[in-house]
TrEMBL record:
Protein name as catalogued: Mannose-P-dolichol utilization defect 1 protein homolog
Family listed: Belongs to the MPDU1 (TC 2.A.43.3) family.
Organism of this sequence: Gopherus evgoodei (Goodes thornscrub tortoise)
Gene Ontology BP annotations: oligosaccharide biosynthetic process
Function: Required for normal utilization of mannose-dolichol phosphate (Dol-P-Man) in the synthesis of N-linked and O-linked oligosaccharides and GPI anchors.
Organism ancestry: Eukaryota, Metazoa, Chordata, Craniata, Vertebrata
Length: 243
């Protein structure tokens, strides 16, 4: 029992909740159940984010092509992910509330580089990596004032909406979803839906919660397109170059 307590307290539960659930067996203690579910769900999302975009990366590598992916959408998504990560760190939110942003950021950066590389713009891809990580270091440094960090998070919603609209428009124009990975899209949808609950429970930050609501709606649009174009091969319709 002591080992279990050391595992759960304080990482998943405050000590009072451990006592309620595991010593008094008060399994209907709603506030503590909410904390346990939120922490567990948050850590599961973080763990899942280690692989959520890898299917997309492998699909691009396997096809040696990023056809069907909007570069503008990738960059805007990266902006939104970066905003969440920087805002969460600046406000001292627990890692379980935002940790997936770190791993999604690394995978999105890789997708952006591969999109440029397979589009014949490798030099631009290298410049993109250098510029992005330089800006990230600046945003995470004490040199960046808090109002700028808050503004970056507030910019998430338009960035998410525009990025998904760009990808949806690319899918519609092409008549297929190209190298877009269904696994990645549906995992992103599931993660954003779960984050609505965990952000409310763990941070109480309305800006963060609304961001995930908007993200869920936008991810749902792309998921619906994937289902609609499910049996349409990537080569069907008008082939479009990477935007």
């Amino acid at each position: 029992m002591a080992a279990l307590q050391g595992l759960l307290v304080p990482h998943l539960l405050p000590e009072r909740c451990y006592d309620e659930l595991f010593l008094r067996f008060n399994l209907l203690h709603v506030p503590c159940l909410k904390i346990l579910i939120s922490k567990g769900l948050g850590l599961a999302i973080v763990a899942g984010s280690l692989m959520v975009k890898l299917p997309q990366v492998f699909k691009i590598l396997g096809a040696r092509s990023a056809v069907g992916l909007s570069l503008q959408a990738i960059l805007l998504e990266l902006l939104a992910i970066t905003g969440t990560m920087v805002y969460s760190l600046a406000n001292g939110f627990p890692f379980s509330a935002w940790g997936e942003a770190l791993f999604l950021m690394l995978q999105t950066v890789a997708i952006g580089f591969l999109a440029l590389h397979f589009g014949g713009r490798t030099a631009q891809g290298v410049s993109f990596l250098v510029l992005y990580f330089t800006l990230l270091c600046l945003l995470l440094s004490p040199l960046t004032p808090q109002p700028v960090v808050t503004l970056l998070q507030a910019a998430n919603m338009p960035a998410i909406v525009i990025s998904r609209l760009l990808q949806a428009a690319t899918n519609y124009r092409n008549g297929h979803t190209g190298q877009l990975s269904a696994v990645t899209v549906f995992l992103l949808l599931a993660g954003s839906l779960a984050r609505i609950f965990t952000s409310v429970q763990e941070t109480g930050d309305p800006l963060l919660a609304v961001t995930y609501v908007v993200s869920s709606v936008c991810n749902g649009v792309i998921a619906a397109q994937l289902l609609y174009y499910w049996h349409v091969p990537a080569g069907a319709g008008a082939r479009k170059k990477l935007e």
